[in-house]
Each structure stands twice: as C-alpha cells, then as structure tokens.
C-alpha cells in the first residue's frame, strides 16, 4: 500500500470521516480476514470477528495515534484481539454444552436446587458497585470481557481483576451454602 493512501486513511480516521472505513475495507479486509481465520480456524467465526473489528475500528478511530503504531499494526491488533475473544467465547460455549450433555456428576435435579433459592443477584447487590457492574455485564448481560471493558469504559485488565475479586467475595458466601447442601444430601 502506498504511504500516500495510508496517510489519507489516517487523516480520514482523525476526522472521523466514514470514507476511512470503506478505504480500510477495500485495502485491508482480505488480510484482516486471514488474521482472524488463522486464529479461529472457522469461517463463520472469522467473518464475525472481522465484522466486529470494523465496528471497533470505527468506534476507536479518533484514538488512533500514528506515532505509536503504523495503521496496519493497529488494525492487526484490533482484529487479532477480537478473533481471540470470539474463539474463547465459542470454546467456552462449546465446553458448557458438552459438560451439560455428558456430565451427571452433582446432578441434583431441577426440583432440588433452583437458582432463585441461591439469591445470587441479592448477594451481588451486597458487593461494591464496581464489582457489581462487572459481574452483571458478564453474567446477566452476556458480554465478553472485551465488551464489558468497552461498555464500562475501563481497561480489560481492570474488568478481569474486578471479576476475580467479585467472584472471590461471592465464593465466601456460597462455600457455606454448598457445604450445607452436601451435608443435607
């Protein structure tokens, strides 16, 4: 790609001009799809990752800094991270489905243990607000870590730390509950 065209795209990004996305698509989409496909090894996931990447590229257009990275490097990182998130999300979904289908360990039946009896939302409500926000986004709104990071406008590492701390606090409450269940059974 010519440096003139790249500079033009960078200028359009800085101006938040929609033509930048079209130019990026025309000049980089095939390569970025290849990046996503190499990570996901699945056509549908790679296409989803590419589409999400373009949305992120547009949303983050004003934050691109040519002094920190070349345009392709910036596009590559966004696409790579999005593809990794997609793959992790798909693998977690697959693992949960397999586990539910083949595992009868701890199968208490639907009448024995109901989520509403656990009062999970009530216990989450007792946590600091910053932990509540993360847990609600991830577990009740179905967001990925990356999506929660963007929605809450906090760094990805902060989302993960707050998740870990929030779960640790909930574990303290529910360890006692699980112990009671085991004693009753």
Automatic annotation (TrEMBL):
Record GO terms (molecular function): DNA binding; sigma factor activity
Keyword Transcription regulation in annotation: yes
UniProt GO BP: DNA-templated transcription initiation
TM segment ranges: none
Keywords for this protein: DNA-binding, Sigma factor, Transcription, Transcription regulation
Residue ranges of every copy of the RNA polymerase sigma-70 region domain listed in the record: 25-91, 125-172
Cited Pfam families: Sigma70_r2 (PF04542), Sigma70_r4 (PF04545)
PANTHER family: RNA POLYMERASE ECF-TYPE SIGMA FACTO, RNA POLYMERASE SIGMA FACTOR SIGZ
Family: Belongs to the sigma-70 factor family. ECF subfamily.
Protein name: Sigma-70 family RNA polymerase sigma factor
Species in which this protein is naturally found: Spongiivirga citrea
